[in-house]
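Aim 2 progress update. The chain analyzed this quarter is reproduced below.
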Amino acid sequence: MKKLSALTSAAFAAAAVLALTACGGQTGAASNAATADFPKAGATIEWIVPSAAGAGNDILARIIAPAMQADLGANVKVVNKEGGSQVVGLNYVAQAKPDGLTFGNTNIPSILGRYLDPSKKAAFSRDSFTPIGSFATNSVVIGVNKDSPYGTIKELFDAVKAAPGTITVGTDSRAGDDHINLRLLEKALGLDFNIVHYNSGADKVAAIVSGEVDFALGGVSSFFGQYKSGDIKLLTVIEDNPSPFVPDVPTLKSAGYDVDPMASNFALSVPAKTPANVVAALEASLKKAAEDPAVQDKLKGAATQPAWVTASDTSTLWKEREALIKPIVDELLQEK
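Predicted structure tokens:
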């Protein structure tokens, strides 16, 4: 099984031969002339966050946007368009004019379940977007309520084995990345969870804090505030190495479970057919912001690991993840 983690160095090297035009960018003298002054001074660029204000994507956008604004000399305005498990905001980006003045979060792998699941009625696919890069990664953890009887991941998984299909686990959406990762755990470890779907990551975390479900899986940043306050206990990080944000939380590997690491990439994209040198300008600005030490400190403060991935490599990662995950989503959609 291929790993659900960031691209390997070998994959990066292989992806280097891809041009931005493979992502839908335009080339040619006319395009160059038309976009040489992008963005125009005083222009407003909308960063569409397809989730609510205060959610993880929104917090990170408001960290990165000021740095991009200062670099581009244009107003980078964060706009929240929530609804439909992010489909509303993603539709907006896909259907926006391809002029570089609209981009948005297309996180990998979470975006895959939005368009691979027909019930979500997404008006987009991978071909609807051109990535401009990915600026950070998020390790996947498993958390329980502070009063949970499960003090270790072994105790939790032993309970699942003892009573298959009864231990409840919350996800942020049906056929989303949580759901996919849980299915991968079930297959790898011979487990059977009782999966409960919520409308958002915030709802999922609230279900853990209230004790409505037995446990939940998701990015460390989404649990971090409640972990620090003591409302949630983290039982494991699904990585080969400990997370710098929760260094005392054991990895699944160290607990004796042979499971491939899981992580998410915070990627941004413009609509397909955005001119290549507009994409390049946004990519350069995002890279500069992502590598700014002050920005990186803020990202780490939000329990998110800075990790720059180029536009081309993000496109390759997206294709690889889609090829890996589509069969799993198809299987999930056949379940009642």
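Confidence is low (pLDDT under 50) at residues 1-35. The chain has two domains: 44-137+265-334, 140-255. These observations will guide the mutagenesis experiments scheduled for the next reporting period.
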